[in-house]
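Note to self: the last two entries modelled the partners one at a time, which told us nothing about the interface. This time every component goes in together.
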Amino acid sequence: MTSRDAILATVRANQPAPVPVPGIPLFERTSRPLLEEFEETLTRMGGKFAPALAGGGLDGLVRSLFPDAAVICSATPEVRGTRALDIGADPAELADVDVGVVRAAFGVAETGSVWLSEEELKVNALAYLAQHLVVLLDPTRIVGNLHQAYRDARFKTARYAVLVTGPSATADIEGVLIHGAQGVRSLTVALVPL
Amino acid sequence: MKPIDHAEASSHFIEAKAHLEFHDRRLWDLRVKRDREAHGIPEWEELRNLASAIKEHTLSHLADYLEEFEAQAKSNGAQVHWARDASEHNQIVYDILSAHRAKTLVKSKSMLTEECDMRPFLETRGVKVIETDLGERIQQLDDEPPSHIVVPAVHKLRGDVAEVFARTIGTEPGNNDAHYLAEAMRRNTRPYFLGAEAGMTGANFAIAETGSFVVCTNEGNADLGANVPKLHIACIGIEKIIPKIEHLAVFIRMLSRSALGSPITQYTSHFRAPRPGTELHIVLVDNGRSQRLGMKDFWHSLKCIRCGACMNTCPVYRRSGGLSYGATYSGPIGIIIDPAFDIRKYSNLPYASTLNGSCTNVCPVKINIHEQIYKWRQVMAERNQLPLVKKEAIRIIGKVMSEPRLYRAAISATGLAIEHLPRFAVYNWLNPWGRQREVPEPPKQSFRTWYIENRRRQ
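The predicted structure of the combined assembly is written out below.
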């Protein structure tokens, strides 16, 4: 007998009596504006918000946030950056990127998360190898909570999908909170309508 | 095999005062933050009920859901392997790595690979394994297992970390700054992410409906390991399955809130299919789980989502440290899982509890942890696994309690004894209870004598 069949046979023999599956409510609440809750939660999770768009367009905005950045690499055509994102290249080549830019599909107010997949990122590693990440988000595309977020059909089709909530963080040394563990050191959301 | 002596091991932990105080305070702080988050969600108790019901439903249909998961994962282009036990798991992982001539593996935190003791297995076969979670890396470099399932190095102070890093990755000796130490590790690890041939993750949840799995982390290390190398291996215990994507919401809403008191982890990553031109291997591991599923009193422990809330709230865990349990899983959840792996080795663990029930009250999937601890005590007694002092004490107590005359004599004698005996007779090795506390002053009168007197007066 293969290990697979042996495991399944033991599981089948030992399973407890059937328990029915519960229905899951959406737990919708409408008491607060979604954008306000999103901003509050993401700030608590270490995320930042870009100032409103001024004269220099989106490239100018990114530059004003990171005046010293040598390499700005964008996965969205809305920002040119300083280097084009090479979709076919080894992801490790993104190691010297200072600022990555991407547009999120939507945000989640409850957790302050933005939703990204390979569709938005083009190269998944961009969101982790870059030193800083700028995320464009349409403020009208924010859902209330995770129940609503998980209704999104793209969870079933994306190869890789991630809810990103602030920059990478660790508190593994005496509970001291440090942003910039292994992934990005900062995450800035720019609220830019599509 | 000699049973693990938790009490003896704890006594060493308690001797290090600064460590003990920090450990206790830090974990209690996580518990307080957990409460704040839980109280912020009006439907929290309903979520706990739902989570428990989803897990019980899944475990009672586990074989079907495992088959569905496998079929979906395969149709997504992932390769699925099955491991009956730790040694099969380790061999499968090694075979995948050697087929790819992989010499370096960047891995994120996985209690399952700890359970399988995978790292030494691979290292003796020439594979360099780099733990990339900061706490886990500290433990790897110090050659210690993790002491907590969520915060692996929580028993160490910054000076300890500085000492380990100075010795192993060349940081300035004596520089205890946490930011400096974390930055040093970031710089040390980055070349491994860029050069490793393979990355490994565990999984917090695996979804039958989509054949995908979810990894919840804060440091960005799991997503680097999974998205930079061309080979991603995910090791998943068979109890991690849930039926549908919609069920994820219930668990993700509670996991990090219960673990760290944050609304969600920085990264909640869903892996369904390999990136073009790369391979994704999923190893489904049993290692005793299918047997535990058949244990009437203990199968509920398979609902565990490894948040660690029961550990943070446990007064015994906070004051004895994870390493004193001598097992992969420590704290209340460890006490009910470990004996299923080795009943003799872990026969003393069920006594590392006050049975206060706090673990049960904070558990997001409503495992009846303290009741299971109590049941394991009964199992130990039935299987003759009690330590001699306990066995003798229980025998005498049983006799005294069953005979009212003896009981009354013992009660008045105890009162007299505590009042009049010299300290060494009350506080000695036969009375571990009195080691860190004073025995309470005996009442002047027992309830029975008071009752008899007062009734006469009426």
